[in-house]
Write a structure and sequence with these properties.
Cytochrome Bc1 Complex, Chain A, domain 1, 2 domains, globular, alpha+beta, hydrolase, metalloprotease, metallopeptidase activity, signal, five-stranded mixed sheet, protease, single chain
């Protein structure tokens, strides 16, 4: 009874904390189509200015892959009013930091400044959108930067091609079949006119969301946003192409040789629905149940107890159109990749045929309550979540309500979702093995 009361007390504390974490925001549109979201947080004298564009690697020409990621770098080159090489100097001189990242679905730029430098951040992001300088010297410079990044993070990184190899085999028609880093041959072959056309098409106010979060004065912030972003002309309407993959009905077998590794890895990957669906959230919970921490089902059984693997894991790789549910393991001793798949499958079959225990289910609920609080614990996290929920999910208030979806998931749904998606005839088995050195791009 005492343990039950302690557990109940912990749950109530988490729920109470989550409720107190509700993110207040205001949103509106400028005449040019730019969506604006403001979040006032007076707890610290910092502010983040961020712009997320609805363009990622899935929007590229199959013969010109890597453009979206390339622009993540290129749009720091300078503008008509920020000379080449001056961007980072301005940020640093004003006590700020900045960065950007690209996925299959979107590109995100942001600056974090002391709150008294908000106007500078807004001006800089408006400059990136209104007056970018895209010339041959910038393209050539960033081409070398991207090549070096690919060498470091992919070509010479152990298991660096893992996700790319999974995607290549899981998708036949959807642009998710290539990685955001793209092809260096495609970037080398592209003309300056092609880069300029890509910028004109996708980097427009009506294809973006501006999020300002932190210690701000709402009225003053709106005035500055109108001043700097209001004059930017609306871009042409973008029509997104829809790609539909045929269901996987029998196991796909693939093999990849990586010269950077000495220990093989086996991967089982299942194609799953859009991250916007309820099923995607349930699959999140299943991956947490199977492999979150050393007390999880797969780790305890295969790594700790049976000592068949050096590492084991599962994660739901969620994306806007489709997702991939990925399980992986690194065999050790006399265990083989086939042995690991057999052990993993046994745990999946248990989920498909039996309800997980109430204790394990409550543990999952606690983890997701904690994740919710942590995800909104900084202005940077809040800004990116606000942008993502608007641009990719179509509902900004999911920043406050998505936790309710996780709370409402039942043990029966976990069982049924595992049955629906995690079957041997619906997956890829990838043998990712050591290979000989080979020429890199």
């Amino acid at each position: 009874m005492k343990k039950s009361l302690i557990a109940l007390s912990s749950i109530l504390m988490l729920v109470g904390t989550a409720s107190a974490q509700k993110v207040a925001f205001e949103e509106y549109d400028l005449d040019n189509g730019l969506h604006v979201i403001l979040h006032n947080d007076q707890s610290a004298p910092v502010v983040i200015t961020s712009v997320m564009y609805h363009v990622g690697s899935k929007d590229e020409n199959p013969e010109r892959t890597g453009f979206a990621h390339f622009f993540e770098h290129l749009l720091f080159e300078g503008t008509e009013n920020i000379k080449r090489g001056e961007w980072f100097k301005i940020v640093t001189a004003n006590g700020g930091t900045n960065n950007a990242n690209t996925s299959e679905d979107r590109t995100f730029y942001f600056e974090v400044f002391p709150s008294n430098s908000l106007e500078i951040g807004l001006w800089m992001e408006s400059e990136r959108l209104m007056h970018p300088v895209i010339n041959q010297i910038g393209v050539d410079t960033q081409n070398e930067v991207v090549k070096e990044e690919k060498r470091l993070r992919v070509d010479n990184q152990p298991y660096g091609s893992l996700i790319a190899e999974v995607k290549k085999n899981m998708f036949k028609v959807h642009p998710y079949r290539w990685a955001p880093i793209g092809s260096m041959e495609h970037l080398d072959a592209a003309t300056l006119a092609e880069f300029q056309a890509f910028n004109k098409k996708f980097y427009s106010p009506n294809n973006a969301v501006l999020v300002v979060a932190g210690q701000i004065d709402i009225a003053q912030t709106k005035a500055w946003i109108q001043k700097y972003f209001g004059p930017i002309p609306r871009g042409e309407k973008i029509t997104k192409q829809t790609f539909v993959e045929e269901p996987i009905t029998e196991t796909i077998r693939a093999r990849y040789e990586d010269p950077n590794i000495q220990i093989p890895m086996v991967v089982a990957s299942y194609r799953t629905p859009s991250m916007k669906t309820r099923d995607a959230r349930i699959l999140d919970m299943i991956s947490t149940y199977l492999s979150n921490g050393k007390s999880s089902k797969l780790y305890k059984k295969i790594v700790d107890d049976k000592k068949m693997a050096l590492q084991i894991g599962a994660f739901n790789y969620s994306q806007e159109d489709y997702g991939q549910y990925i399980l992986y393991g690194m065999p050790q001793g006399t265990a083989t990749s086939e042995d690991l798949i057999k052990e993993i499958d046994e745990e999946i079959v248990k989920i498909q045929n039996e309800l997980i225990s109430e204790k394990d289910f409550q543990k999952l609920q606690n983890i997701y309550e904690n994740n919710y609080v942590n995800n909104n614990a900084s202005v940077e996290g809040v800004a990116e979540n606000l942008a993502s929920f608007y641009l990719l999910y179509g509902d900004v208030n999911l920043i406050n309500t998505e936790i309710e979806m996780y709370r409402s998931i039942t043990r029966e749904e976990i069982k049924n979702t595992a049955k629906k998606y995690l079957n041997p005839n619906q997956r890829l088995i990838l043998d990712y093995v050591p290979g000989k050195d080979k020429a890199q791009n």
